[in-house]
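A reminder from the course coordinator: this example appears on the midterm review sheet, so study it carefully.

Given structure:
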C-alpha cells in the first residue's frame, strides 16, 4: 500500500496486524513509517518507540526514532538515538552519517571524524 501511496490502506493493514499480535514489531514499525511519510512525526515516534520496545537491538528502530526526534527539533534526544543505533551496528550507515552531521554542526570535528 505504501508503494501505491495509499497511506490509509497501509494504516488499516498495519492496525489489523497489531490487532492480531501486538508483539509484532514489524507492524508497529510499519505504522511509524506510514505516519512519517504523512509527516505526522509525533504519531510516527509513538509507533517507532513501540517497535523499539519489542525489538530493542535493531539499529533501524533507533535510527527511525532519531529521525523523528530530529524532525521535531529534539536534537539532543535524536543524537542519543543515533548513538544507540551506531552502537547496535548501524549496517546501513544512516545513523552514522546523521550523527556525523550533528557533531559537525555542533563544531565537534573530532567526534564527526570518528564517524567516518
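Designed residues:
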Amino acid at each position: 500500500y505504501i508503494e501505491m501511496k495509499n497511506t490509509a490502506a497501509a494504516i488499516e493493514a498495519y492496525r489489523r496486524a497489531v490487532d492480531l499480535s501486538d508483539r509484532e514489531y514489524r507492524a508497529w514499525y510499519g505504522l511509524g513509517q506510514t505516519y512519517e511519510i504523512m509527516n505526522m512525526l509525533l504519531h510516527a515516534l509513538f509507533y517507532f518507540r513501540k517497535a523499539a520496545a519489542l525489538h530493542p537491538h535493531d539499529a533501524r528502530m533507533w535510527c527511525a526514532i532519531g529521525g523523528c526526534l530530529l524532525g521535531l527539533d529534539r536534537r539532543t534526544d535524536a543524537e542519543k538515538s543515533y548513538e544507540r543505533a551506531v552502537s547496535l551496528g548501524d549496517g546501513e550507515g544512516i545513523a552514522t552519517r546523521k550523527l556525523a552531521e550533528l557533531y559537525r554542526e555542533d563544531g565537534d570535528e573530532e567526534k564527526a571524524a570518528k564517524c567516518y
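The first helix runs from residue 7 to 20. The helical segments are 7-20, 25-37, 41-54, 59-71, 75-87, 94-105, 109-114.
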